[in-house]
Amino acid sequence: MLDAYPGEAVRLGVNVRGPRDHVVKVEVRELPSDIAVVTVTPEESPAPFTSTIAVSVSASAPLGNYLFELVVYDATGERLLGTDPLVLLVLGRGLSRDFAKHYSKLCELYAEYEAMATIWHLLKHVLPSGATFTQLKQAYQLFVGKKVSIGIIGNTPKRMLGKKIIAEEQPGLYIANVKDFDIVLSRIDIAQVRVCTSVRAGECGESESAEQIARGVQRRRGQSRPQQPPKYHRASVGGAQEIAKEHSTLATFYILLHTWVLRQRATYSTGSTSGS
Known about the structure:
The chain is of the alpha+beta class. It folds into two domains: 2-90, Immunoglobulin-like (Sandwich), CATH 2.60.40; 98-215, Arc Repressor Mutant, subunit A (Orthogonal Bundle), CATH 1.10.10. It is 42% helix and 25% strand. Helix 2 (103-113) runs antiparallel to helix 3 (115-126), helix 4 (133-144) packs across helix 5 and helix 9 packs antiparallel against helix 10. The chain is elongated. Mean pLDDT is 77; it is low at 194-208, 216-237 and 246-276. Residues 217-238 are annotated as: Disordered.
């Protein structure tokens, strides 16, 4: 993963291997030119050789994670030798380069526990001297993987202050107020978080790489099928429908209620006997 600020250039050295003396080409694909301009030097040469990839980030590039692909092609043998996914992380000016080192971890925390636990980790391990609201917003946008409004993130620090997970050291500067992650979890409504994460379309897995996170890899979940009522309930309902044709609705209700009570007693008796 490469990290850079808008207007900055970063370089990556690549050791290119292939059949000896075959001309091998190196290409970079799928990185939009309005985000960064990429040059490869040399683009092709007899193997083996070292190629330098220079990525010049646009001064107007919005912060975010951008996936691109390194392609190595044997021009002599006319065959693909391999591809390698790479990530360009464009940082906001308010974030230090340490953010890139914690990027995968922050994504994992957000996928598992959502915003509060992730912001606590950010303040505890990435910005221990404190963070402004702007820094929190920039970080939030990166580990969520999309642009967010002030309103979305705005309420989170207030809630964290109320739960005493963070503190305001001075007006507008937030610091971690809890040392232990388990204490943080004890102050978060984990049940609600579990529900939210279970319906999120894409998550970052614990073992996922930065490349997978940038792709927004989605976990496959089986869709639950509508459950049929138990067989004896279906039989009771069927019988009640027949009764309703010849008798009143009230009589039907009593038949259903009586059947349900008998079934519950039978189930309780069976459970009690097997448990003894």
